[in-house]
Design goal:
Pfam families: Bac_rhamnosid6H, Bac_rhamnosid_C
Low-confidence stretches: 1-22
CATH topology of the largest domain: Glycosyltransferase
Keywords: Hydrolase, Signal
Structural class: alpha+beta
Oligomer: single chain
Number of helices: 13
Number of strands: 28
Mean pLDDT: 94
Largest sheet: 10 strands, antiparallel
CATH class of the largest domain: Mainly Alpha
Domain Alpha-L-rhamnosidase six-hairpin glycosidase: 250-472
Helix content: 25-40%
Radius of gyration: 25 Å
Distance between the termini: 19 Å
Protein name: Glycoside hydrolase family 78 protein
Domain Alpha-L-rhamnosidase C-terminal: 577-638
Number of domains: 3
CATH architecture of the largest domain: Alpha/alpha barrel
Strand content: 15-25%
Shape: globular
Length: 681
C-alpha cells in the first residue's frame, strides 16, 4: 500500500499516440493505442504481455516436454525425424521467422500447440475440429547453406505456446537453428503491449495472476480484421485470411480459434476488457459488424460475425443488444448509438415479438453457447431478455428517444420478471428450472443470471439459488448441469458474479480459486490465459463428451468468454464500477472476503478512476480518486451488523443521518469527485 499511497494521488489522464503517426504496429496497421500504462506500479510485474512486439522462445524442451536449456542454446536437428520443442513460456501468436544453417537437403517442419499435451509433429486442431489435421508447415532447402524462413500471412498461428521443429531428410543432414523470432499479431494497433489502462492488485497473488491472465487473454483476442479463420474451413492445415469486420482491430472469441466475433462471448469479455486493457476500439468494430449484417427485414442479428455468419440464435441476438449497452456505458459513444438506433429498435421488435400469452419468451432461434437443451420457454433466454429490456430502457435515454420507450420497456421487463418467477421457479428445489415445462434440470446459467440480472424476486430465493449452485462444485470448478461432465468458465463467470451480488464473497472467491486457479497453475496449459472449458476429470476435452467429432486439442486455451474474474474482482472486491456513460456517476462498494487489501482502477474519457482499501486491527481505510465533477455512491461494509461505526472522511467525522444511512449491514454515503480517504473503525 505504500507504493499505492505514493502514486494514488497523481491523477493524470493517459496519453494516446497520435493516430496519424507513421509508426506501424502490425503489418500496415497504424499505431493508435495508448503509449503507456495509466497506472504504473509494482503490479505491472503480473502483466503477461511481452515488452516487445517481437519475441523469442524462453526455453528448449525435449520431444517429451522435459526442459533441456534456456533459449538460445544448443538447437541442432540431426537426422530424419529429429525434434526440438521451443517453449515461449506464455500464450503467443503471430508469424515466426526461423534462421538456420544446414549441411544438406531436406525440410524443417513447424508445428504449434497451446498445451504441452500435443507437442509433436502435428499442430493442435484449429481448422474446424472435424476436418483433417492442422499438421505442420515446412521450410524446404535444396543444399547446404544459410536460410531465413518467415511463415506466410495465410498461416498466421493465432494462439500457441509451444513450437515444435522437426527435420525431414533422406540423408545425414543436420540443421543448426541460429535464431527464432515471433512477430506478435494480436492487439495490432498497440506498439506497447503492456500499456494497460486498468489494473488490480490484492493481498492474494493467485487472484492477481488470474486477473492478469484474463486481461492477457483479451489482448490475444484483439486481432487484425483480415486474420479471421477461413470459411469454408480448409480440409487440412489452417488458413487465417478471413475478413472479420471494419477497422484495424476487432475482438474475437479465441486466439487460436474460432477467430470470429461472437456477441455471447462479449457478454463476459467486454466488461473485463474495459477494466483491464481498456481497448474499446476492438469492441466497437465487433458490434458494428453485427449491425452491418443484421437481417433488414426481420431485425435478427447473426449468431456470429463474418466470414462464419452463423444464424439462428435468439440468445446471441440479445447479447448484441446487451453489448451495445455495455459499449455505451464504457465509452459514451452516442454517435455510434444514434447511427445504429433504428436497427436496434428493429432488433427489439424482433425479439419481443416472440413473447407469448404466458408473458415468457418462446425461443425459436435455438443456437446457444453449447448447452444441451434449447428452445421453448427456456429460463436462460428469458433471463437474458429481462436484461435486454432494462439495458434497452437506459439506451433509449442515452439515445435521446422521446417516444416513451423507456417506460414501455421498463413495464415489459416487470411483466417478464413476474412471469419467470411464476412459471420457472421450482419451489420444492429452491432454484429455477431449465424451462417452464421442465421439472428436473436446474441450470447453472439461468440461476446465476437470475441473481446477477435481478430477476429473482426475493432475497430468500437468491440465497437458496446461491446455496444450491454449490451442489455442482468439484475441487476444480463447477460442473454445469446443462452441459453434463463439463466445466464452463464462461457460465461460471456469471456464477461468481451472482455470489458477489448477494454478498457471498467467500463463495465467489472460492470458485475463482478452484476453477481459474486450477488452470493457471496447470503445467499442461498456457499458464498465462484462461481456457474455453474442460472436463470435470481434469482433461481438456471440453464438449468431447457431447459426441462432437473434433479432438480435445481443438479446445481454445485463450478464450475471452472465460475472463469473468477480471471484471468481477474489480467490480466487487475492489468495489469500483461506473453507473452511467463514461463514469459520470459511479459506485464504490468493496467486499473484503478473506483478503487484507486490494486496489485498482480503470480509465474512461473522463479520466482515471482509482480506489484501494486496506484492513487494520480495528477497521479499514478506503481511499479513492475519481474525476472531479462526477458523483457516486460509497457503500461501506459495517464492522458489526446493524451498528453504525465510527467514520471519518478526509479527517472529518461523519454521523448517521441523511448523508450517511445505515442500510442492513452497510453504510451508504454520497460520494464526490476528487481524492478522498474514508476511515472506518
Amino acid at each position: 500500500m505504500a507504493v499505492f499511497n505514493a502514486l494514488f494521488w497523481l491523477a493524470t489522464f493517459f496519453v494516446l499516440l497520435d493516430s496519424t503517426s507513421a509508426q506501424k504496429c502490425w503489418k500496415d496497421t497504424t499505431c493508435s493505442g495508448p503509449a503507456d500504462t495509466s497506472f504504473p506500479g509494482p503490479w505491472e510485474a503480473n502483466i503477461f504481455a511481452p515488452a516487445s512486439r517481437t519475441v523469442s522462445p524462453a526455453s528448449i524442451l525435449s520431444n517429451s516436454g522435459d526442459f533441456v536449456s534456456k533459449f538460445p542454446g544448443n538447437s541442432q536437428l540431426s537426422g530424419n525425424g529429429s525434434i526440438l520443442v521451443f517453449d515461449f513460456g506464455i500464450e503467443v501468436g503471430g508469424l515466426v521467422t526461423l534462421d538456420y544453417s544446414t549441411t544438406g537437403k531436406g525440410s524443417i517442419g513447424l508445428a504449434f500447440t497451446e498445451s504441452k499435451n500435443w507437442i509433436g509433429e502435428w499442430s493442435d486442431s484449429s481448422n474446424g475440429g472435424f476436418k483433417g489435421p492442422d499438421g505442420a508447415i515446412y521450410s524446404s532447402f535444396n543444399t547446404s547453406g544459410t536460410y531465413s524462413y518467415t511463415m506466410p500471412d495465410l498461416r498466421l498461428r493465432g494462439g500457441f505456446r509451444y513450437l515444435t521443429l522437426f527435420l525431414v531428410t533422406n540423408g545425414t543432414t543436420s540443421v543448426n537453428i541460429t535464431d527464432i523470432k515471433l512477430e506478435i499479431g494480436f492487439q495490432p494497433t498497440w506498439s506497447n503491449l503492456k500499456a494497460y489502462q486498468g489494473y488490480f492488485h490484492s493481498s492474494d497473488e493467485l487472484l492477481n495472476r488470474i486477473w492478469y491472465g484474463g486481461a492477457y487473454t483479451l489482448q490475444t483476442n484483439a486481432v487484425p480484421p483480415n486474420t479471421g479463420r477461413q470459411v469454408p474451413f480448409v480440409v487440412t492445415g489452417w488458413a487465417n485470411n478471413g475478413t472479420l469486420g471494419p477497422g484495424d482491430t476487432i475482438i474475437v472469441d479465441g486466439a487460436k480459434r474460432d477467430r470470429a466475433v461472437w456477441p455471447g462471448d462479449m457478454g463476459i469479455a467486454v466488461p473485463s476488457t474495459f477494466v483491464s486493457i481498456g481497448d474499446l476500439s476492438s469492441v466497437k468494430n465487433a458490434l458494428q459488424v453485427m449491425y452491418n449484417y443484421q437481417n433488414p427485414t426481420t431485425g435478427a442479428f447473426p449468431e456470429a460475425g463474418p466470414p462464419l455468419l452463423q444464424q439462428g440464435s435468439d440468445t446471441y441476438h440479445m447479447w448484441t443488444m446487451i453489448g451495445t449497452y455495455n459499449y455505451l456505458l464504457y465509452s459514451n459513444d452516442t454517435t455510434f448509438l444514434k447511427e445504429n438506433w433504428s436497427k436496434y429498435l428493429l432488433a427489439m421488435k424482433f425479439i419481443y415479438g416472440k413473447v407469448g400469452p404466458s408473458g415468457l419468451l418462446n425461443v425459436t432461434g435455438l443456437r446457444d453457447w453449447a448447452r444441451w437443451q434449447t428452445g421453448g420457454n427456456g429460463s436462460e433466454p428469458n433471463m437474458i431478455l429481462y436484461r435486454t429490456l432494462l439495458t434497452g430502457a437506459d439506451l433509449s435515454i442515452w439515445a435521446g428517444d422521446i417516444t416513451g420507450l423507456n417506460a414501455t420497456w421498463q413495464t415489459q421487463a416487470a411483466s417478464l420478471k413476474t412471469a419467470i418467477n411464476e412459471y420457472c421457479w421450482d419451489l420444492s428445489y429452491g432454484a429455477f428450472r431449465d424451462n417452464a415445462t421442465d421439472t428436473t434440470l436446474h441450470p447453472q446459467d439461468a440461476n446465476s443470471m437470475s441473481i446477477l440480472f435481478d430477476v429473482v424476486d426475493t432475497s430468500v430465493k437468491a440465497e437458496s439459488i446461491s446455496s444450491n449452485l454449490l451442489k455442482n462444485w468439484t475441487p476444480i470448478g463447477a460442473v454445469t448441469p446443462e452441459l453434463p461432465g463439463n466445466i464452463s468458465p464462461f457460465i461460471s463467470s456469471f456464477e461468481i458474479q451472482a455470489h458477489f451480488t448477494i454478498g457471498q464473497t467467500d463463495r465467489a472467491l472460492d470458485l475463482i480459486r478452484r476453477s481459474w486457479g486450477w488452470y493457471i497453475n496447470n503445467p499442461l496449459g498456457s499458464e498465462s490465459t484462461v481456457i474455453e472449458g474442460y472436463l470435470q476429470n481434469g482433461t481438456f476435452g471440453y464438449r468431447s463428451s457431447r459426441g462432437y467429432d473434433y479432438d480435445a486439442s481443438y479446445v481454445s486455451h485463450s478464450h475471452g468468454w472465460s475472463s469473468g474474474p477480471t471484471s468481477a474482482l474489480t467490480t466487487y472486491v475492489l468495489g469500483l464500477s461506473i453507473t452511467s456513460p463514461a463514469g459520470g456517476t459511479w459506485q464504490l462498494a468493496p467486499q473484503f472476503g478473506d483478503l487484507s487489501s486490494a486496489e485498482g482502477g480503470f480509465t474512461t474519457s473522463l479520466g482515471k478512476f482509482q480506489a484501494g482499501w486496506i484492513l487494520s486491527h480495528n477497521g479499514y481505510t478506503l481511499s479513492y480518486n475519481v474525476p472531479k465533477g462526477t458523483t457516486g455512491e460509497v457503500i461501506l461494509p459495517c464492522l458489526s451488523a446493524g451498528k453504525f461505526p465510527s467514520i471519518t472522511i478526509d479527517g472529518r467525522h461523519v454521523s448517521s443521518g441523511p448523508t450517511a444511512q445505515l442500510e442492513g449491514s452497510s453504510i451508504v454515503l454520497n460520494g464526490a469527485g476528487g481524492s478522498h480517504t474514508v476511515v472506518v473503525s
